[in-house]
Amino acid sequence: MRIKADTGVCVGSGQCVLTGPAVFDQDDDGIVTLLVDHPEGEAADQARDAVSLCPSQALSIIED
């Protein structure tokens, strides 16, 4: 699986960072940045949770 982040849609709520700190971070403006775009194991589970919690739907999963 691959994570995609649409930085133009991100509102900087930080839910992704709280849910998946090994996968997501925020830049100085609070916009999501990806630390890993192909998470595995527990990080993949956290990424899936973060996608479902994102209030702006800026995150998506692409199954390989």
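Second entry:
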Amino acid sequence: MAVLLMMSFTACSFVKAGEVNPSQNNSQEEEEGDRSIEELKAECPEYFELSSFKGIEFYIWEMSEDSFRCGMMSGTNRNKTDEEIWDLANRSLSITEAKKILEYQDIKYQDVIVMPVIQPVSSYQYEINDEYWAKLKKVFDDNGMAVNIILE
């Protein structure tokens, strides 16, 4: 059974492919110091130029237990390559930062498809299954983001 969460987010801070940005925080305790919208605009301009015409593809992964990072791309009529998805780890956002960008750009939840992935930069082991989808829904709910879930 495939599951889609409908919502919106983005990513930022470019680093060359294959490198990990050491300035990125990876724990939810550190998220309290998230960047302001002005800092995000300066550091991540590409995420303020995304088009929601064909929807927003939001990718989320877990770096350690209950510590999530995310990235976003404009929707297209093609599947994204592994390399494109993996590159998001080099410009990732916390959930709080993603929410700021979502609200700033006035992107509606129904325009976004949430896709959990497993990033090579994370050594944390998890399986994307029904239990994991429930965990993600709780994370979004806890962050005050209403999420539509579509089960196929």
